[in-house]
Specification:
Blueprint (H helix, E strand, L loop, with lengths): L2 H17 L5 H6 L9 E3 L12 E10 L3 E10 L8 E9 L2 E2 L3 E4 L1 E2 L3 E11 L9 E12 L4 E13 L2
Antiparallel strand pairs: 1-10, 2-3, 3-8, 4-5, 4-7, 4-9, 6-8, 9-10
Length: 162
């Protein structure tokens, strides 16, 4: 089986897992099992990506554990901040509140459009015991050292626990 077919089957399996659809028998047998990770979609739908402006247009959960998420986002970086030391990060929210118990491994981004993979980590700053439900993630582009120049909120429901 070629790599592109594996990707297509995996994409179908993810769509089926999220929507509750049933895969045809031949695809079901070839599809890898995927963890249930919830949805990852824009908070406000209907926006079209703009190739000439900063934008984050897609969010896909690539891997999930109780303390980590690896998320891929499609982006366009068009701001005049240069081509070095530009990064993408993430904040996790519950009920609209940013939570201090999360960290992230930033992804370096380049001028134009691309895909960034960010790892979100749970367990910082003495998190509360037990399970924690979150419902949103906000991705942001920033200049290394501080200045955030673009943000985009996505719905992402996930249960975390140490």
């Amino acid at each position: 089986m070629t790599r592109s077919w594996r990707r297509r089957i995996l994409a179908l399996a993810v769509v089926a897992a999220v929507t509750g659809a049933t895969l045809p028998e031949g695809i079901r047998a070839a599809a890898p099992s995927t963890p249930a990770v919830g949805e990852c979609r824009p908070q406000s739908s209907g926006q079209r990506p703009n190739p000439t402006a900063d934008d984050i247009v897609d969010c896909t959960v690539e891997q999930a554990t109780p303390t980590r998420l690896r998320v891929r986002v499609a982006y366009t970086y068009a701001s005049p901040f240069g081509s070095q030391n530009i990064w993408m990060g993430a904040d996790v929210l519950a009920g609209g509140t940013r939570l201090k118990w999360f960290g992230f491994r930033p992804a370096a981004i380049t001028k134009s459009s691309g895909i960034a993979t960010i790892e979100v980590l749970y367990g910082q700053n003495n998190p509360p015991p037990g399970r924690l439900e979150t419902d949103q993630v906000e991705f942001f582009m920033y200049v290394g050292g501080g200045q955030i120049f673009y943000r985009r909120l996505f719905t992402l429901r996930h249960t975390w626990h140490l």
